[in-house]
Every structure is written in structure tokens, then in C-alpha cells.
Amino acid sequence: THVCLFLSKDGLVCTFGAGDYGQLGHNSTQNELTPRIVAELFGARVSQIACGRWHTLVYVPSLGKVYSFGCGAEGQLGSADASNQLIPLPVELPSDWVNGGKLNQGNSTSEKVIKIIAGGNQSIVLRLKKK
After folding, report:
1. pLDDT tens per residue across span 68-116
2. Nearest by Cα to 21 from 71, 68, 56, 57
3. Closest among 22, 21, 53 to 38, alpha carbons compared
4. CA dihedral 71, 49, 93, 25 (to 10 degrees)
5. Where are the RCC repeats (predicted)?
6. How far apart are CA 123 and CA 114, in angstroms?
7. Does the CA dihedral 112-116-117-120 come out positive or negative?
8. DSSP secondary-structure letter at 92?
């Protein structure tokens, strides 16, 4: 089973392919034969996307949040609940990374860059120093 997703230059996320675990983000487990906008992310201006085996990650810099959806059986969605998520929900990040619900990206002298990576049943969120 394959999942395809793409990110427009305006930050819209479209997905299609296998939806068995909700990894397409369309609030269902249906397969999609043609690209469809992920409605829950409409207007959010996503800057990064990443696909694992049966899960998806997206990063919305204006909100300072990473969202996940799809299979959560092995904790890859970043939630204490190992169930599947059919829509994008915020990832629970370490408390020292979060300030008022948004990623603490540092002050102007030590600005941070967020990078998301997904593979197999893993998700990685990196907070890197800007060069």
C-alpha cells in the first residue's frame, strides 16, 4: 500500500493512495484515487511534510506546531494513546520545547529551526540552531 502527499507553494497539503490507518488525514480509512486537500489543514500554511509507513507528519511554522495522523500503534504519532488518528492532531512535544502551546524557537540571538522526519514506524522532530 502506498500513500502520496504533496505540498503546494501556498502551504496546502494534498494526499491520496491507501488510507487504511487514517494516514491521508481525511477523517476516514478510505483509499483516495485522486489528490484531495486535507481539510483540517486548510489555511494553515504547512511548510514541511513527512511520511512514515502508515503515518504522516506536517509542520505549521506560524502556529509553531507539528501535527500527526495515521497509525499510532507504536507511538509514532507522539501521543500516549496508541490508537489511530484520522485527522491531524498536535504532537505532544517535550515541555521544555513548548511555550504557551507553541514551539519555543528561541529568541533572536539563538533562533531555532524545526525539521521533521518520518520513516517506518518512527517520527523525529529536530530543533536545530540556525546557522
Report:
1. 999 999 999 988 888 999 999 999 888 777 776 677 765 544 567 899 9
2. 71
3. 22
4. -40
5. 11-62, 64-129
6. 13
7. positive
8. -
Distances from the Cα of 92 to the Cα of 4, 38, 68, 81, 102, angstroms: 25, 21, 10, 11, 11
Q: Which residues pair with 15 in a beta bridge?
A: 5, 36
Instruction: Provide the grid cell at 109.
Output: 540571538
**Cell of residue 24, nine digits:** 491521508
Is 62's pLDDT higher than 80?
A: yes
Helix, strand or coil, per DSSP, at residue 39: helix
- Residue type at position 110: S
Residue whose cell numbers read 524557537: 105
- Residue 131: all three cell numbers together: 546557522
